[in-house]
Amino acid sequence: AQSVTQLGSHVSVSEGALVLLRCNYSSSVPPYLFWYVQYPNQGLQLLLKYTTGATLVKGINGFEAEFKKSETSFHLTKPSAHMSDAAEYFCAVRSRTGGYNKLIFGAGTRLAVHP
Amino acid sequence: NAGVTQTPKFQVLKTGQSMTLQCAQDMNHEYMSWYRQDPGMGLRLIHYSVGAGITDQGEVPNGYNVSRSTTEDFPLRLLSAAPSQTSVYFCASSYRGQERDEQFFGPGTRLTVL
What we know:
Helix content of chain B: under 10%
Strand content of chain A: over 45%
Structural class of chain B: mainly beta
Number of strands of chain A: 11
Distance between the termini of chain A: 41 Å
Shape of chain B: globular
Largest interface: A-B, 23 and 25 residues
Low-confidence stretches of chain A: none
Strand content of chain B: over 45%
Largest sheet of chain B: 7 strands, mixed
Oligomer: heterodimer
Radius of gyration of chain A: 14 Å
Number of strands of chain B: 11
Low-confidence stretches of chain B: none
Mean pLDDT of chain A: 91
Helix content of chain A: under 10%
Largest sheet of chain A: 6 strands, mixed
Order of helices and strands of chain B: EEEEEEEEEEE
Distance between the termini of chain B: 36 Å
Structural class of chain A: mainly beta
Shape of chain A: globular
Number of helices of chain A: 0
């Protein structure tokens, strides 16, 4: 069965500092990988996804993630944090097989950005 | 284009009451889903639908019913509310097909069961 582990339920960074949010997955076959962001009192919004091809994926708002098969990881990074990045971030996976795009979510990481 | 809409935004129920959470999308998406979000647990799939007239269970279906009579609407019914169903509920929709399957989420319904 697939599962997703996000290391660190809370991450705090200074404005301008590097953002690194960690995600590891467990799956017998490398799945599709996603990062979603949730701003306060809103639904989830897709940041980026990896399906095939280049393992470094660029998303919206300056975020990127790298798929590392050997490490079963898909960590999210941003070179310089902005106050507006404060939100909760969810890593998710879905199987490459099957007719329905069932997403398995991690527990989430809440990012705080302080001046 | 309103995307995915959910009503109500907030609801308080007493134990044993029933209610229906509404979800609608105007993007002609084949797939629709209901998730619940609980602290420290991410989102868990309750029920989903791959098209009008077709529904199936997700990870946590007990206590919930769904139906899909139209492409646009996918209501979630709580038959007899319990405090364990206190949560934030999200509806999502997407196209069918692996390359077009980004899920679009509604703004959520915050439900409290007393």
